[in-house]
Amino acid sequence: MLKVDNITKYYDDFCAVDHLSFEVKPGEIFGLLGVNGAGKTTTFRMIIGLLEPTDGKVTLDDKKIDYSVTDTIGFLTEERSLLTKLTVKEQCHYYGILKGMTEKQVDERLDELLKKFNIENYKNKKIKELSKGNQQKIQFITAILNNPKLLICDEPFSGLDPFNVELFKEELKEMAKSGSIIIFSSHRMEHVELFCKKIAVLKDGKDVLSGNLKDIKRRYRKKNIMVKGDIDLDKIKKIDGVLDIIVKADEYEIKIAEESVEEKVFKEVSKCKNITKFVVEEPSLNEIFIDKVGETYEN
Predict the structure, then answer these.
(1) 10: which strand partners?
(2) Of the candidates 141, 137, 183, 181, the residue with the CA atom closest to the CA atom of residue 41
(3) CATH number at residue 229
(4) What parts of the chain have a pLDDT lower than 70?
(5) Pick from 243, 234, 229: nearest CA to 277
(6) Helix or strand holding residue 34 (H, E)
(7) What predicted TM-score, i.e. pTM, was given to this entire model?
(8) Which residues contact 110 (CB under 8 A, 6 or more apart)?
(9) Whose C-alpha in 21, 224, 248, 292 is 20 to 30 A from the C-alpha of 142?
(10) Domain count, the chain
(11) Which residue, 160, 90, 80, is CA-closest to 118?
């Protein structure tokens, strides 16, 4: 188990991370979210031992993370960190040997992963000759080459088309099934919702929202009602507790302040004609994130 216990990090007088705690068990994919400058990168660096917390501690299986366990860790950074003049094989040998693997182990694992990601013919190509998407594949391969016990993925789908996003997603799910501990960060909230059962949202270094994603959605008071049919927009807008109505291609999304407003909306909608859909939905993670943080992830 990875345990982040009340960690704080100061840079001089600036507090980058403020008393952050969470746990991730083997086989779990944990979402760590926040806008730029929220403290995610500093947290990642403390987890893998690149930075020492000012206060608090990080442990993996009850042991402090240091050079004795780094061979069991993988880190896919948001920034490209490949040596572009090297070939794919040379790059992977470099990372693999740093992680304590033999050349034979690297070659066997590399061949397996190149085949899985449909880039077998790139093994002896230089990194700089590859497209942005294929460079991202190589960066991902270097992070998982050693079958890490703990994997941190910061924006892993950057530069990938939908087909290759699916390949990455399947690999992460397989790793989780095999018992890896995975920390996942992405500005694509729909990806976080697909992967993560538990999340923590950082703002100015503080945990402003954390826990089981299903419970967070359940506790969140605002709901969305999806309606198809000939509704009277003006009358529904006047209902106390209706926040907004979004007109979509073939339906309406009615945003309500809390669950109790649902009955009022239903009473009004039931007077309308040709109603074929009335569904109350939980809010998306993106909506909750914006509400808690006050801005979109990309800002």
Answers:
(1) 15
(2) 183
(3) 3.30.70
(4) 295-299
(5) 229
(6) none
(7) 0.86
(8) 88, 89, 92, 96, 123, 141, 145
(9) 21
(10) 2
(11) 160
